[in-house]
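Justification of computing resources. Each target in the renewal requires a structure prediction run like the one illustrated here; the chain below, 299 residues long, is used simply to show the kind of job we budget for.
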Amino acid sequence: MDVSRSAVAVQEAVAARIEPLTVPRNALDVLAQHTVSAAAMEDLQVDAWYDLVRSAHPYRASPRSAFDQTIDLLAGRYPSTDFSEPRPRLVHDRETGTLTARPGARRLAVTSGGTIPDRGLYPVHLVAAEGDSQPRRVGELDEEMVYESRRGDVITLGTSAWRIEEISASRVTVSPAFGLTGRIPFWHGDGDGRPASLGRAISAAQSELAALPAPRPTNASRGSASMTTRAPCRSTCSTSSSRSPARCRDRTSSSSSASSTSSGTGAWCRTARPGSGSLGRGPSPSAPGSRSATAWTAR
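Resulting structure tokens:
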């Protein structure tokens, strides 16, 4: 399966059918980040800042209403109490039309920039002891694992067991649980993604391969499969009587009088044995009246 997908990807690249690129339009979260960053450096004039934002290709059609609502959100003018938790980052002076950064805005812009979404992992911290300025971090838990856990549950992180003491909105606090067996946590990984165009090309290639007729065996392959492979026998065995064991010696010459054939598991040698005819069919024609015979013995 990986070979077929790689082959289709190479075929699409050679044909210059690369995945389409879509530029996001009017991303208000990015606009808010740039506004805080710019205001942290110097005070901004709202109208001049709007004109500069409109000069960028993704915001060339951005309406003034969306821009003003973003400024109000950064300044603490929320549309409802549902947005009251975030702290305002800017001061909007409507009389002068200026934006001024609040304390901590520069640090926030440096440490919290970007558009990568949160992975949904909860940090796990050890209960802070007396005199500790900051609790020690022991690992992370998936948000679904945290949702299914309760206070007092014992979990395993690394090689140690931990008892959950508190679950808050942003972290899980634990304490050591020596001698107890805890639940093994689980995490959800991100799957391999691919664009829809490449997925359609892979599906078409697999359908085309599935429609091909099954290969039929040729006459040459049939004949080679039914033929018996002959190999030179490298041992000659002889006996002095029917009761004594066979005494064998190696023969490396290919002109040995003994013949051999391969049965698939090893070579078989035709050797002289007294007491019966050739291959059990009477006296040997090469020595009339003799009791020597030909038998098959394994090499």
